[in-house]
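quick one before i forget lol
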Amino acid sequence: MPAKAQLPHPHTGTGLAAFRSPEEEELAGKRVELERLQSELADLELELATLRSELIAFERRYMGVVGRRYAELDRLEAQIAESTARRSPKDQSARKEAESARARARESAEALGDADQERPAADFKPSEELKSLYRQAARELHPDLTTDEQERRRREKAMAEVNKAYEECNEERIRQILNEWRSSPEQVHGDDTAAQLVRVIREIAQVRKRLVEIRGEIEELGQGELSRLKKQVEGAAARGQDLLAGIAGKLDARIAQTRARAKQASRAG
């Protein structure tokens, strides 16, 4: 007697169990596309965060070496202008010049004070582990990976903390943020195929939009005055020259001359 035909077991991956509806097929394809875009987004976010942190570190260094000297020049020039105005109390132009000079000196001092409140200037040199952690955080926490507004705000807050930790080269803090995120109850989801498909399509659109924005931000930062100066300093360093030290030396000479003028103006006043 011939053996009875065996029906495919529902868990063998054959027969009806292997069939997927058109919606499920499209959802699977969209998820692959979203995964690829998420990876590209994480790479670009890492590039942008690194560029920002490098520019911040360079700006602090610049303010400590050059900005401090310009602030001193502005202070001395204000002293000279005020002495001139005191000698000619009826000269309106001298009085206005003294007011403008004092305003410039005040702005320079405030800018320098803001820089001094930051952590000490140092080159930003993230480790490969730090970059890897940031990239993983960007892939999991990025605000453009959700279509829910409340969830987006939660992700924006988490990514802000990640960015701060990355700037401070704090690997442990990023690990802590990731662990807290993964264990949160909000990470439990579940919807039907149609709803998931719509959500994934919208997430893809959001990620594509953010990719365009990031490329624009990177280009804008790269073409900025601070970035150009940073490249000049790095180019000079590659040739064995310290460009900022050279600028500082010239400013020191100007400061000495201006200080002498300020003393003369004070005595004359």
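fyi The two ends are 125 Å apart (CA to CA).
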